[in-house]
Amino acid sequence: MSQDQTQDQTRGRDQDITVVHLMRHGEVANPDGVLYGRLPGYHLSELGRQMAERVAEHLAPRDVTYVVASPLERAQETATPIAKAHGLDLDTDGRLIEAENVFQGKTFGVGDGALRRPENWKHLVNPFKPSWGEPYVDQVVRMMGALDAAKDAARGHEAVLVSHQLPIWIVRSFVEKRRLWHDPRKRQCTLASLTSFTYRGDKIVSVGYSEPARDLVPAHLLAGAKPVKGKGKAFGA
Questions:
Q1: How far is the CA of 207 from the CAs of 1, 19, 173, 204, 228, in angstroms?
Q2: Which ranges of the sequence are coiled-coil (predicted)?
Q3: Which pTM was predicted?
């Protein structure tokens, strides 16, 4: 290949438009109301499966050439109908996994959960890191790695990555140059939502957000919804 051909190829790559959709999984069956975190055995509810199918229908006309998910069951089950709709194999990327949390497997609340026990208070000393789980910076590093890998795999097309609420919100906050520590109630990352990163070449040029399954999401779980007593606790994401 001549030098001119190599330069033309490089210029072409720099102008490629690639869209990487970070999708949060659908609703999970969690009758005990625990923070399930990275625990195995938590699957989509019937409503969660409907959400996954709805997003698969929404993305069916799109130029999706790569689908990958967190190794956790709820993410794999959400991604499966999307991959099937495009005739693709489903890949797994451990970097898309839920954030670590010391309260995993426990109910989480002030009056009725782990927060009422003094032995757990030591985990709450630094909300900026945070002290109860995986550092925000570490989440940024692994999620940016997963985004970049998907961008390369689907260059010039679209990719769908199924992950979890906190890692999605943290990497979006990083890209949009917001502080990483935040009020969890204000995350814009509803069940089965799409946070979409558009790349020109290797550079992110815009971030979008949509909720294709919004009509299936219980009102108290929508982004920005006011909490309802007895409902809406973020037991897992």
A1: 36, 9, 10, 8, 30
A2: none
A3: 0.86
